């Protein structure tokens, strides 16, 4: 039995993500929550011939029911960027949305896994951690900022310049955070290995860091990535569910609290994460969420080390902003 709630289910990401979760045969109950339009989305998706039950929850009065008895909450609620905006520009609106939703999850399903898609992820995840801690149910192994789209882009963008590569199986670790220069692809550790010139590494790194902007620009005011994000979010949720159900080790990257596994985090701290509370790292998932932070077991390039240092400076500010919002300094 796996019950999944999608909060923000009527949105650009929410709709295709809800459909993909309806297609996931491990899911038995799907709760779709939004403040608009969700009855139609739920009615539509409920006709898809898989065994899960779909329920619709419209508006704040239905939020507690939407997040009662759930195993996993996925949060794509909030406003997306328009051209000229940074993800940090979304903080003003999305911080409060994420805070309210996580409070409701803490009160009604305190053991649920929580996957946060709403931007700025570098700040909304720290907000969620603070909220959960205040409610007495914070478990760093169960909270995830979804950065899967960065690794999806990394594989696909390498394919664009090396057509023989299989984009579906190529893995590039991406560490740091989820915005601009906080996104650090470790192309030197691509698996299987890919030979790249210095110039190619720089160009690819820049494209992966600013891949979101390509979509924002192309959508020209109509939002940001939705379909590729739904794919990435569904992939991450599926990994989490499979790891929980089967106990088989599944590795995915995510923006997580490094104290979920202090031992595993040590290598990333040495590489430049320093004393940061949160960092995107590859995590091995298991029945209780994060089983361990997976070591790189390899030397990264000087270029990548410098990129991590740049990311860490920006991340420190993003993380502090989230924490200060949820727990204002006295
Ligand atoms: P959207 O505007 O199409 O959809 C957002 C949905 O959230 C809407 O249906 C809206 O009604 C709903 N919503 C607003 N306030 C809510 C509340 N309090 N409770 C429940 N639902 C609420 O936006 P989108 O394109 O789906 O993007 C959503 C978020 O995901 C944005 O913040 C965007 O920046 C982010 N995003 C993150 C990634 C990532 O890699 N993590 C990728 C793409 C987009
Ligand atoms: C992305 O990477 O596509 C998302 O974070 C959305 C955005 O604002 O770029």
TrEMBL record:
<keyword id="KW-0520">NAD</keyword>
<dbReference type="GO" id="GO:0030060">
    <property type="term" value="F:L-malate dehydrogenase (NAD+) activity"/>
</dbReference>
<comment type="subunit">
    <text>Homodimer.</text>
</comment>
<feature type="binding site">
    <location>
        <position position="94"/>
    </location>
    <ligand>
        <name>NAD(+)</name>
    </ligand>
</feature>
<feature type="domain" description="Lactate/malate dehydrogenase N-terminal">
    <location>
        <begin position="3"/>
        <end position="145"/>
    </location>
</feature>
<feature type="binding site">
    <location>
        <position position="87"/>
    </location>
    <ligand>
        <name>substrate</name>
    </ligand>
</feature>
<dbReference type="InterPro" id="IPR010097">
    <property type="entry name" value="Malate_DH_type1"/>
</dbReference>
<dbReference type="InterPro" id="IPR036291">
    <property type="entry name" value="NAD(P)-bd_dom_sf"/>
</dbReference>
<feature type="binding site">
    <location>
        <position position="34"/>
    </location>
    <ligand>
        <name>NAD(+)</name>
    </ligand>
</feature>
<comment type="similarity">
    <text>Belongs to the LDH/MDH superfamily. MDH type 1 family.</text>
</comment>
<dbReference type="Pfam" id="PF02866">
    <property type="entry name" value="Ldh_1_C"/>
</dbReference>
<feature type="binding site">
    <location>
        <begin position="8"/>
        <end position="14"/>
    </location>
    <ligand>
        <name>NAD(+)</name>
    </ligand>
</feature>
<dbReference type="Pfam" id="PF00056">
    <property type="entry name" value="Ldh_1_N"/>
</dbReference>
<dbReference type="GO" id="GO:0005737">
    <property type="term" value="C:cytoplasm"/>
</dbReference>
<dbReference type="InterPro" id="IPR001236">
    <property type="entry name" value="Lactate/malate_DH_N"/>
</dbReference>
<feature type="active site" description="Proton acceptor">
    <location>
        <position position="178"/>
    </location>
</feature>
<feature type="binding site">
    <location>
        <position position="229"/>
    </location>
    <ligand>
        <name>NAD(+)</name>
    </ligand>
</feature>
<dbReference type="InterPro" id="IPR015955">
    <property type="entry name" value="Lactate_DH/Glyco_Ohase_4_C"/>
</dbReference>
<keyword id="KW-0816">Tricarboxylic acid cycle</keyword>
<feature type="binding site">
    <location>
        <begin position="117"/>
        <end position="119"/>
    </location>
    <ligand>
        <name>NAD(+)</name>
    </ligand>
</feature>
<dbReference type="GO" id="GO:0006099">
    <property type="term" value="P:tricarboxylic acid cycle"/>
</dbReference>
<dbReference type="GO" id="GO:0006108">
    <property type="term" value="P:malate metabolic process"/>
</dbReference>
<keyword id="KW-0560">Oxidoreductase</keyword>
<feature type="domain" description="Lactate/malate dehydrogenase C-terminal">
    <location>
        <begin position="147"/>
        <end position="325"/>
    </location>
</feature>
<dbReference type="InterPro" id="IPR001557">
    <property type="entry name" value="L-lactate/malate_DH"/>
</dbReference>
<feature type="binding site">
    <location>
        <position position="119"/>
    </location>
    <ligand>
        <name>substrate</name>
    </ligand>
</feature>
<feature type="binding site">
    <location>
        <position position="81"/>
    </location>
    <ligand>
        <name>substrate</name>
    </ligand>
</feature>
<dbReference type="InterPro" id="IPR001252">
    <property type="entry name" value="Malate_DH_AS"/>
</dbReference>
<protein>
    <recommendedName>
        <fullName>Malate dehydrogenase</fullName>
        <ecNumber>1.1.1.37</ecNumber>
    </recommendedName>
</protein>
<feature type="binding site">
    <location>
        <position position="153"/>
    </location>
    <ligand>
        <name>substrate</name>
    </ligand>
</feature>
<dbReference type="InterPro" id="IPR022383">
    <property type="entry name" value="Lactate/malate_DH_C"/>
</dbReference>
């Amino acid at each position: 039995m796996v019950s999944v709630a999608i909060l923000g289910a009527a949105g650009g990401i929410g709709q295709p993500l809800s459909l993909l979760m309806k297609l996931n045969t491990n899911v038995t109950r799907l709760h779709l929550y939004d403040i608009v339009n969700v009855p139609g989305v739920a009615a539509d998706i409920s006709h898809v011939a898989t065994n899960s039950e779909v329920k619709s929850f419209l508006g704040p009065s239905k939020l507690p029911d939407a997040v009662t008895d759930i195993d996993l909450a996925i949060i794509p609620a909030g406003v997306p960027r328009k051209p000229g905006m940074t993800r940090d520009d979304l903080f003003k609106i999305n911080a409060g949305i994420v805070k309210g939703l996580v409070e409701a999850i803490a009160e009604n399903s305190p053991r649920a896994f929580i996957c946060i898609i709403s931007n700025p992820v570098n700040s909304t995840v720290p907000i969620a951690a603070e909220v959960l801690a205040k409610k007495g149910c914070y478990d760093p192994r169960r909270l995830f900022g979804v950065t899967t789209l960065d690794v999806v882009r990394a594989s696909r963008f390498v394919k664009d310049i090396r057509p023989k590569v299989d984009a579906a199986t190529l893995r590039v670790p991406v560490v740091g955070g989820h915005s601009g220069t906080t996104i650090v692809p470790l192309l030197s550790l691509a698996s299987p290995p890919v030979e790249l010139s210095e110039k190619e590494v720089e160009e690819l790194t820049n494209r992966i860091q600013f891949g979101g902007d390509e979509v924002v620009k192309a959508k020209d005011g109509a939002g940001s990535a939705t379909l590729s994000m739904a794919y990435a979010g569904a992939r991450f949720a599926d990994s989490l569910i499979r790891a929980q159900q089967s106990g088989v080790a599944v590795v995915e990257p995510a923006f997580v609290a490094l104290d979920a596994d202090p031992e595993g985090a040590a290598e990333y701290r040495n590489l430049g994460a320093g004393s940061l509370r949160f960092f995107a790292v590859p995590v091995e998932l298991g029945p209780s969420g994060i089983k361990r932070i997976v070591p790189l077991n390899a030397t990264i390039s000087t270029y990548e080390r410098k990129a991590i240092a740049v990311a860490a400076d920006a991340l420190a500010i993003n993380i502090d902003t989230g924490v200060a919002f949820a727990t204002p300094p006295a």
